[in-house]
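[09:14] KT: can someone run the structure on this one? pasting the chain below
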Amino acid sequence: MKKTVSYQSIQLELRKFSKRWKNYSLNERTGAQTFLNEFFDSFGIIFDPDKLPYEFNTGDGFADCYIKGKVILEMKDGNKVKTKADLTKAIPQAMKYWKAKGKEVNFLILSNFKSFLIIDTRDLSSAYIKLSELEKRISSFSFLFGSSAILLKEQEAVSRNATELMGKLYLSLKSRLRQNKSEEIDLFVAQCVFCMFAEDVGFLPNGIFTGLVNRSSEGVFNSAHLLSSLFKMMDEKDNIKKQGSLFEHVRWFNGPLFKVRPEIVLNDSEIEMLSSACDFDWSQIKPEIFGVLFESSADDDDKHNNGMHFTSESDILKIVKPCIIDYWQSKFQNCETQNDYESLHKELKKYRILDPACGSGNFLLVAYREIKRFESQIFHKLVTITGKDYKWIQNHMGYFPVQNMYGIEIKSFPTLLAKVSLWIAKKSMQVELYLDEPDLPLESLTHIINTDALQTKWDDVDVVIGNPPFIGCKQIRNCRGDNYFDWLSSRFKDHNKMSDYCTYWYEKVLEDIRSGVRVGFVSTNSISQNTSRIASLDKVVKAGGELFDVWKDVKWSGDANVTVSLVCFTNKSKITNISKKIANKSVMNINTRLESDTDIFDYPKVTMNKRSFVGVAIQGVGFTLTTEEKSKILKKSPKEKLVIKKFLSGQDLNQNVLGVPSRWIVDFGDMELQDASAYTESIEHVRKKVKPHRDKVRRKAHKKFWWHYGDKRMEMREKTKKLKKMLVISNVSKHVFFQFISSKILPSHSCTVIASEDYFTFAVLNSVFHEVWAWHTCSTMRLDIRYSGTKCFDTFPFPKSNIKEIEALGEKLDKERINIMKSRKIGMTELYNGLNEGSYSTLSKIIEKLNIAIAKGYSFDKSDLLDKEKVLNMLRSLNEYQAEELRIAMLMKQKSEINKKVDKRKKGKKSRSNTKKVI
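[09:31] RB: done, structure tokens below
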């Protein structure tokens, strides 16, 4: 049975438990049951003979305690079993009990009343905890709780409270001392944070920093004198100078953090804040929560201008796992011999990790922690293979160095916090993993630097991870200033200026990071949309890179009210035999819209009237004519202009001014050979250029009707013959745009034709609504969209109101695009490239007004026009509604036709009956 507990209450109860039992006489038989009762009671687990049987028979001897599904606990006589080595010798006996219970529990605990040895039966890893360490090692017993989630949430809440207090202190100092001591304040707060942790994990004598803070509050000495004295001794290597003083047992920490000792005099309220922060157990503070301190130390304007936000561990792991953990685990699985594992560890020690927007170091900290756990996994494997002691293996192999963590951060204070968090993480991992790695002196961490990541060359590293700033394209100038924006434009000349700030980090990867390196970024969700996609993911793929693990739209667990995309890719090369995943689901391929090319959605049609067609498929290049060939034929036989037409390709449509065709073609439509032969020059041209090829093909129809196209698209011709113009789009294009083309022009199979000449249809098809639908329903070719009339146009739900306003704006759009193309002598692709980079303000305003007018036609909130997901969800719902309307209309039509047939039959019978009467 359990009772409600909190982290603080468990810690307090274990502290009391340790004090009560520290002088016990160590007899196994007389004290075991009481010891275990009180031990479990500290965790909120109340003794119940049915649930917690003591002295139970395993079938292979008697064990002291068994909790079903959790643990077997065996007590040992402390007079005989005194050391860790003695407890280790008792493991085989406990393993017998475990096997006798069907290997049903994951953990064994051996205790001699003075210490605990925990064994994980899944991998035989172990943890040794002294009685005096219990209150600081609660997490090692998390398996006793049904889930450790409650405990972790409590721990995170404690961490937040402590770091928020330090954030308030930081802001108070900044406000009171102004900017003249900005760097000193940064350093002072970082030193205090480190010292609170240090005294709670044994780096410093217990309570020494807290005592000095409390003496400051009592007015004995000011804080500057007391605390700087401690900081000075922490930087003092000569122990002789410390003898006989309060600082006699203070170790040498080296100079990275304490070489400079700012003398900050705290006022009463600031001393109270620091004293309250000291009351927390900083050994249990999660260092990855330092992002809270980072954020709470900045005002709202500073956060906004630098796009800085705390990233949660769950989001970080979605980047760290595929980029780092999976990479090393795959290598681990391929190891077989001792030499394999030793070579793997040697490679691991050279592995360098960069976060080029590191903030307070959250990504680096989580990555470091996972690397150290993986390193410990190698050590344990070598223990199993060699039979050597765990400590001997460590000393023999060496360690992954914390100096392999690289970071770039534009703000000075978070740069300091990043270093502090890594020093703390190193000590924490030593405790968790029982590493014998030297904990002092502190490393310099010279690879974590305070500068602008875009203005410095990145180091040669083996993996890049991070969370570049969340600043939209339109906010860069406001947030960073005119000079900086101008510098960005000149420094990255080929970069799209209408893309989000984070896209420049992708550009830097391509510039500075070598081929094959894995990269993982948390980015704004617009990274897969339009200009931001073109400036980042498209460039990654063009350079030979490959997306392998992504989350397209994630409700961010950080404090910012944003939706993000998580993107992992390889730089300038592809990975063989890697499982690609979207939102943790395996897929064959991932495109730059962060979707699988196989995830093309099939939606029902919403119209009975077929209006979309693919252009003609000629099946033989001999039908086409150059301008010279066309002129030559018409000079001999002018009447043949009836069978010679302009021939439009998708490339013409995208690149040429007004989409003017560059070729001509002989077109006999569905004429019989006798009729086609009346055009002697043209039929002779086709006979010479096409028939020899057709004679060799397998399809009988193509061989027999060699003067016809492979697919003549007669239905398309029928639907467009009465129109003066029609809407056409290239089947493969960089942007989604339709143009009006004369109906006398013959489109090729590389074009899709819409049989419409009205400006309403034109306007809607050139709107953001149809663009979103197209990218959602159509597939892609490399970085371009492959337009499908069947999948996209036939399923697209048009608005049914505000038609006149939409038509008027559609006409304005058409005229403005024509004016630009004529005056600039450019095609549509170049026009839209310029539009996305901020050119053509008049055209941009027309498009904006058009989208608002169409939004009104849909009864869609115009303020959500930039939210592609909301646009798509609206269109999905409307497609379903209009498809149902169509289904009902078709049923009514069928019913009507049946009724007509029935009525016709009735009339026929009545007529025959009347005839009989007459007869």
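[09:33] KT: thanks! The chain is about 50% helix and 15% strand.
[09:34] RB: yep, looked fine to me
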